[in-house]
Design brief:
Elements: E1 12-16, H1 22-32, E2 35-38, H2 46-52, E3 58-63, E4 66-71, H3 87-95, H4 102-107, E5 117-119, H5 126-133, E6 138-142, H6 145-159, H7 165-171, E7 172-176, H8 179-184, E8 194-197, H9 208-213, H10 215-221, H11 227-237, E9 241-247, E10 260-263, E11 267-273, E12 285-286
Parallel strand pairs: 1-2, 1-3, 5-6, 5-8, 6-7, 8-9, 10-12
Antiparallel strand pairs: 3-4, 9-11, 10-11
């Protein structure tokens, strides 16, 4: 399979803050055609570095705890990384049960039933990892090379964590690939029960967390396969259903009409049933 990657060599600079990571930085720089520079951790001040290297649109930062990414045009936003070990997501993993998660309902998790899921727009991997923690086997696909690098780094750190290693080893596969090409190449016996799509969409809120997350939007959106085409391919690939994550008041993806919806406070899941006949109970569900 041929991977179509976006060249960021003239837009992104790789900064290294740990001398022990210089060999790794050189390899990554060569792979992604990025220039790299060493910055002492004592001199690391993100806002100042954004100004200093403002000729670049993005900074990829490699330190003792892996890779982080930031957009130099977003002066108030912090760096972002794929992280399953700390923060709000780690708390969510520890405290949230299947019955509390709308995503679990959306993909069809039931007692004794864990669907095989293809997360075709994995991003930083949170939704896919959550589903894997519920016992689903999840294949994560991410097309953009920088986002894929962040996700692979996050998964590698989770792999050596005693509380998360089982999930990564047994329930997760990850590939950098174009989702449409990947789905088209699957043999019938490898088709997933569920294809999960989370097309990145610009948020209206201006919280610090949203500002950080939206730093990825510019690079993820550039050259991205159109959402209707992705949905069409997903419907041809999934054995049972396609689930699309949308903002609560956002429009559905053009094309097929969703079979039903699951609504939360700020997020909506549009569910497209592939083989199951609709019943009155599945026409609409909201929380």
């Amino acid at each position: 399979m041929t991977l179509k990657t976006d060249s960021l060599g003239d837009q992104c600079l790789l900064l290294v803050t740990d001398t022990s990571q210089l060999t790794r930085a050189k390899a990554v720089g060569q792979q992604y055609q990025l220039n790299y520079e060493f910055i002492s951790s004592a001199d690391f001040r993100l806002k100042q570095l954004k100004k200093r290297f403002s000729s670049y649109s993005y900074l990829l930062i490699l330190g003792t705890e892996g890779f982080e990414f930031c957009d130099t045009t977003q002066q108030t936003a912090g760096a972002i990384k794929s992280d399953f070990l700390s923060g709000q997501f780690s708390h969510r993993l520890r405290t949230t049960g299947i019955k509390q998660e709308l995503l679990a309902k959306a993909v069809g998790i039931k007692a004794g039933e864990r669907p095989r899921i293809l997360d075709a727009t994995a991003g930083l991997g949170r939704d896919g990892f959550l589903l894997a923690s519920f016992g689903c086997t999840v294949t994560m696909i991410e097309r953009h090379p920088i986002i894929a690098l962040l996700l692979a780094d996050g998964l590698s750190r989770a792999l050596i964590d005693p509380s998360l290693s089982f999930i990564v080893k047994n329930n997760i596969e990850f590939y950098q690939a174009e989702a449409i090409e990947y789905m088209a190449g699957l043999e019938l016996h490898n088709k997933p029960d569920v294809v999960y799509l989370d097309p990145m969409f610009p948020q209206q809120k201006s919280s610090a967390k949203v500002k950080k997350e939206m730093q990825l939007f510019r690079i993820a959106a550039a050259g991205h396969t159109d959402a209707p085409g992705l949905l069409k391919s997903a419907l041809q690939c999934a054995a049972k259903r396609v689930v699309v994550k949308r903002p609560l008041q956002g429009p559905a993806i053009l094309g097929e009409v969703p079979s039903f919806q699951i609504k939360g406070v700020s997020t909506r899941y549009d569910i497209y049933l592939v083989t199951t006949q609709l019943t009155p109970e599945t026409r609409h569900f909201s929380v």
